[in-house]
Design a protein that fits this description.
Layout lengths: L3 E5 L5 H14 L11 H7 L6 E5 L2 E10 L9 E8 L8 H15 L4 E6 L4 H9 L3 E12 L2 E11 L7
Parallel strand pairs: 4-5
Antiparallel strand pairs: 1-2, 2-3, 3-4, 5-7, 6-7
Length: about 170
Amino acid sequence: MSAIELRPMCKEDWASVSEIYADGMATGYATFEHQLPSYEAWNASHLESCRLLAYSGDKCMGWAALSPVSKRPVYRGVAEVSIYIAKDARGKGIGSRLMQTLIKESEKHGLWTLQSGIFPENTGSIHLHKKMGFRYIGKRERVGKRDGVWKDNLLFERRSTTIGND
């Protein structure tokens, strides 16, 4: 694998992003989603800032983006993490690079808390979040169904050490 380059995501990247997203969906433990959204739907549900891609040569190896947790002004500094790594790129440090950069970008944009809901089976994501300073805050039991099976969701959060401490 050649060097990994991180860059902002744009609309033209949707084909690569959605392919990796579909791979994540196929695992059965990355998301409750079953169907790929259109770019327009995905775009409307994610912040315009803090959208990142990891490339090796001309191949997209992963992506990360943030979604607002609420439209209420009090939660303007809180966002939910989405991070997906191509199946042939997992375990190679790409998630760490994306997450480190996502954290820095989120703080540049005034976000003080990042949160994630992770299926218990997604041990790679749990490990990544812990490694990046997220703390386990609890479990939502049987919060939703995936393929007809009730699933738990583990909640992780990371508070900024530079934003929201005043």
